[in-house]
Amino acid sequence: MQETYDPLDPNGNITIKWDVMSWTPDGYVAVVTMNNFQMYRHIMTPGWTLGWTWARKEVIWTMVGAQATEQGDSSKFKGNVPHCCKKTPTIVDMLPGVPYNQQFTNCCKGGVLASWGQDPQASVSAFQVSVGQAGTSNKTVKLPKNFTLLGPGPGYTCSPAKIVPTTKFFTPDLRRKTQALMTWNVTCTYSQFIAPKHPGCCVSLSTFYNETITTCPSCAWGCENTHKCIKRDSKLLSVVGINTPRKDNAPLLQCTQHMCPVRIHWHVKINYKEYWRVKITVTNFNYRVNYTQWTLVAQHPNLNNVTQVFTFDYKPLLPYQSINDTGMFYGMRFYNGLLMEAGPAGNVQSEVLLQKDKGTFTLKQGWAFP
To answer: What is the DSSP string of 287-338?
Structure first.
């Protein structure tokens, strides 16, 4: 369990719930709902990928709101052909704008899933699946196993499926309650130990009282992309399609000494009598990625007394209740919630006003840095 523990969000997880809504002659129809209960970690484009292994020889007859990436060998079927007959199906969300007869509630967002702390309404994804060659009762159904979740890269570990009390649903008029025929849950938790080996960003620091800028470490994201990077004034940037994302999510980075896709700069700007002010700048150096619903998490002892955040939204994270030194910054919807690709518009910035605690505040020994 230690490998799947996030100390800043100890209760955060993605819960995948299967609700069997009806039995069919050779199986069942289920609604699969994915809830992101993580406070700050979301799933960005190209979205989530869900996989599992069937316990027997089950097949997927139809899907609504999602699709399997491969159909598999269906040569033994005559007449009706399954949507997917692979032993280990791989499922992805539908893209926005699909026909209405292929849509389902909370589907079709390209796999993008907001965090619970940032936008609870957008932290849900769901689809419907019709399973055949399976059990047709609570006693004969065999639960899928070996669940995997990519969000969009590695980092998640999923528990075995576990039967839980059936989900209850209210009718639109809220006067009648119905319930699923059978329900099981899978819980997926994130771990830095199995995530990509390089951090997603680096941090640089500066202050108003010193001209020295503490830059990101050299090759903070590794040096393997040094020979593939593009200079800021390169003519290659005008080539059509150079910014198009690739299926393998390979970055196209601007040439820098740190080679990080994102840099966070924390600048101690002003020291007032009872307050102090910080400027935060987030810069994107990846020409192939726009960061939708980006989130920045920081720790500092004075985050327990944030007076005002000017052009970001802010929410304190209180994983241990008694300690209030961690917070999440994120963009305002329709203003700076999208961090554009590298270039003139590839940055967002804000200023934070904090009230001093006279017993702890100091500008010595780097105390003002996160």
So the answer is: TT--EET-EEEEE-GGGGGEEEESSEEEEEE-TTSS---EEEEEEPTTTTSE
